[in-house]
Amino acid sequence: MTATGDEAIDGDGDAAPVLVHGRGVRKVYGDFVAVDGIDLDVRRGESFGILGPNGAGKSTTMRLIGCVSDPTDGELRVLGLDPRHDGPRIRARLGVVPQRDTLDEELTVRENVLVYGRYFGLSRAAVRAKADELLDFVQLADRADSVVEPLSGGMKRRLTIARALVNDPDVLLLDEPTTGLDPQARHVLWDRLYRLKREGVTLVLTTHYMDEAEQLCDRLVVMDGGRYVAEGSPQELIRRHSTREVLEVRYRTDDHEPYAQPLRPLAERVEVLPDRVLLYVDDADATASAVLGAGPERPMSLLPRRSSLEDVFLRLTGRTLVD
């Protein structure tokens, strides 16, 4: 499956240039196939997401794009260059936010940005000005002279993003940028990333948070077992692979399978999870009334909601992201 989607269009009506291009890309470690023949095109100014559970091949794909690992087979071009031969030139034009922060915790917030900027050959004056600009952008200007170690996880992630932007990268790679953060910290980080997206920064991000993908991605691929199982915008994927609404039904039991049987005629599709039954329907409120008269006992709760990317993933892989 080719993850091309609709072409991004620039202000002059022309297709935006492709910054990451891959065809049949594979990465094999011994007998293990981590990435199995994927295609992708990421255009300038696009926010492109790779969605999937742990072990799906997301981080390996990011390592290939980031020129940390060479593909075993296939064609890959990043910024028009071949990662096998032009890795240093490509890396100089990328910004990378890894899964785990690699900050120097004994330095101050500002010093972390200054030291990193010097790696790219920026002058002291230029990197000082850039550090002030970036720390203001990630809302850490008031902590510029604080040592990093005692900062919260959300602050450290924002500092890592500031550091990754110091060289004005052509592409910003973010590998599960909000994993481990509390909901408030995640939303602050989303706001910063959304601002980058609005300013035209090209983002490539991996995540296993469905709401994050819906918030940030113009287009995404769902990845499982090293392969793509679907691609498109979040709205396209939901429209293509799910119903308009979902009714979540919970009973006071540890085994919902017996309770699901009488509900099956009420829905287009039924998924039974350990703690609930999901009914895929066009009108969840109307279905809720029917559920009350269909089962052997009254449900503990009924939750009507819109379909989400999590429903798409469950449909495509037969399991939830937390499996």
From TrEMBL:
Residues 20-250 form the ABC transporter domain. Transmembrane segments: none annotated. It is a peripheral membrane protein. Keywords: Antibiotic resistance, ATP-binding, Nucleotide-binding, Transport. SMART domains: AAA. GO terms for molecular function: ATP binding. It is found in: Cell membrane. It comes from the Bacteria. Belongs to the ABC transporter superfamily. This is ABC transporter ATP-binding protein. The lineage of its organism: Bacteria, Bacillati, Actinomycetota, Actinomycetes, Micrococcales.
